[in-house]
Amino acid sequence: MDAKKREIRNLECQLAFREASGEASEKGILGTICGRAICFNAESQVLDEYGQTFREVIAPEAATMDFLNTQDIKINMLHMRELTFGRAKRGVSGNARLSVDNEGVNFEVDVPNCDLGIRARELTKAGVYDGCSFEFWPDKYDVEEREGKVPLVRHTHFRAITALTLGMDPAYLQTSLHARELYDETPAGKKAKQEAEAQKQREQAELHRSINRMQYGIESSII
Fold this sequence. Notes:
- The chain has 4 helices and 11 strands.
- The chain is an alpha+beta fold.
- The chain has 2 domains: 7-181, Alpha-Beta Barrel (Serine Protease, Human Cytomegalovirus Protease, Chain A), CATH 3.20.16; 184-223, no CATH class.
- Strands 1, 4, 5, 6, 7, 10 and 11 form a 7-stranded mixed β-sheet that branches. Strands 2-3-9-8 form a 4-stranded antiparallel β-sheet.
- Strand 8 and strand 9 (104-112) form a beta hairpin.
- It is globular.
């Protein structure tokens, strides 16, 4: 764990989409995507970071409402900044809202009627995106060495939370809605990880091509 490096955690959650009506629809909002972004006191799956394996938990004091209201948090897809369609800016502006309860951090984002908004809506409704990642810079944490088990990292304070991402492959199974895959050292697990990475690269290449076609009328050379 390095406080100078950004970390990403993936969460499985029940993403929900609510259709807009009335005034919201008139303002160009397609609807609202909501889910749980961070789950407190829940052990993650086994994570693999720079050759070290561990599990982790997020303490409630690491992500308080007061702290979240100091952050500029973007909402995007597949950890791609150019696929940002929402923002919660220090609790005072943006089309996304955060809340905290005893179980964790929840979010909801008003989906704009644009190409990215339509894509986020359709992939969420189809169940393609069933998880949420949060990107953070670690600050304070404790490490518990456990006999016969991988170490347990307990985060008690984040230096920053920078983004929430709709995606797949959760590290926390307890939440509702990547850069890090689940660690599985078996041959089958390694093969599945390679196949998932290849699929993600194909999806990202297609997204880049779509963006270039829409913005510049050209085909991307990314493969």
